Amino acid sequence: MDTKDKVILLVEDNPDDEALTLRAFRKNNILNPVVVARDGEEALDYLFGSGAYSGRDTRLQPQVVLLDLKLPKLDGLAVLKRLRADPRTRLLPVVILTTSNEDRDILASYQLGANGYVRKPVDFEQFLEAARQLGLYWLILNVPPPAAETPE
Fold first, then answer.
1. Which domains does the chain have, with CATH numbers?
2. What angle do the packed helices 76-85 and 103-111 form, to 10 degrees?
3. C-alpha span between 37 and 42 (Å, rounded)
4. CA–CA distance, 45 with 48 (Å, rounded to integer)
5. Staple 79 to which of 2, 17, 39, 40, CB 3.0 to 4.6 Å?
6. Could you tell me which residues are beta bridge partners of residue 10?
């Protein structure tokens, strides 16, 4: 699978955090295409091929979803719950990328099936390193589950 086939879905409503994440990816030579959803509903539309993404080939799912928790319309935990409830996205790698330091958010994320939980560092150099490690692991080292036949 080529880098261009390994899409990252970034679900982030804060324009500054979005710009910071994209800049950190570029600085670390993570050149994968990044689809940005700015709220929980838009993320679900992209993943399930509805709304503005109606007609998108949903057999082509992102390599990883970087999901913020504090989102408008539908929060990150509700998005995660919906992804884990659907056979088409049940195994999709989802990493929570948030500023929340609250134990209840961390626990709820893992209970709902998050694959990882990363706190956004405030310091840019720390964030650069976090983005490098996320890219290295989820885009290069991690072996995703094989594509399974799922009901349309």
1. 3-140 (3.40.50.2300)
2. 10
3. 5
4. 5
5. 40
6. 36, 66
